[in-house]
Amino acid sequence: MRRRLTQTRVVERSGSIGSRGFSFPELIAVLGVISLLACLLQPLFLRARDRARETHCGSNLTQLSLGLQLYAADFDGRFPTKEVVWTSAIERYTKNWDLLRCPTHAIHRRRFAEVDSAGRLISYRYRSGLTLDSWDDEILLHELDFFHGTRALGVTVAGYRKELQQVPASNP
After folding, report:
1. DSSP labels for 15-29?
2. Which of 7, 72, 121, 172 has its CA 20 to 30 A from that of 102?
3. How many CB atoms are located within 10 Å of the residue 148 CB?
């Protein structure tokens, strides 16, 4: 059986409503609503991004704390002393050097106050002189500055994250 091919004719509707799409005022109104929603939601997205960076920073501190605890376990419960550069001491326990920088610190492009012996920039300060027998709530590592608004992150000897509040200066 053979089929017959027939030509179909396209009929153009010239007078029907909506044949041209959106009118210009409708398009302007839709764009206005979309831009209004974008302006209203932008602070929400910025806050969420800052919280994500803060979580990343806390994760860095926890990983560095674990490296220091592994070091202390290998050296009779003692953390690195002042004579030993702590970043070099935990080199065999933490292989990722991006842990040494807070993502918020890099974004604000503040000066890094510390550089280790290998020239790596560091966002965190180590408190030497502690042992695994120290009080669990003693701060072992903390941020160099208040990168997250009025608070900085720290980690205790036991490995728990702690939020450090900025104390306002009192006027005498």
Report:
1. S-TTTT-S-HHHHHH
2. 72
3. 20
Q: How far is CA 117 from CA 90, 104, 110, 125, in A?
A: 13, 23, 20, 14
Nearest Cα residue to 166 out of 152, 147, 155, 154 = 152
Say if residues 104 and 110 touch (Cβ distance below 8 Å).
no
Sign (positive/negative) of CA torsion 91, 87, 51, 152?
A: positive
pLDDT tens for residues 127-170? Answer: 877 777 777 777 788 777 666 666 777 888 777 777 776 655 55
AA identity, residue 32: G
The domain spans of the chain are 54-165
pLDDT digit string (tens) for 4-60? 666 655 555 555 554 567 788 889 999 999 999 999 999 888 888 888 888 888 888
Name the nearest CA neighbour of 143 among 165, 166, 124.
Answer: 124
Instruction: State the Cα–Cα distance between residues 158 and 167, nearest whole angstrom.
Output: 24
The closest alpha carbon to 135, from 152, 120, 107, 157, belongs to: 157
